[in-house]
Amino acid sequence: MIEVMLSLTLLTMVTMIVLPMLISISQERLTIRQQEEVTFYLERQIHHYLLNESIESFPFSDANISERLLEGELYQLCVTWIGANQRKYERCHYAKK
Question: What are the DSSP calls for 18-58, one per residue?
Answer without folding.
Answer: HHHHHHHHHHHHHHHHHHHHHHHHHHHHHHHHHTTPPPPPP
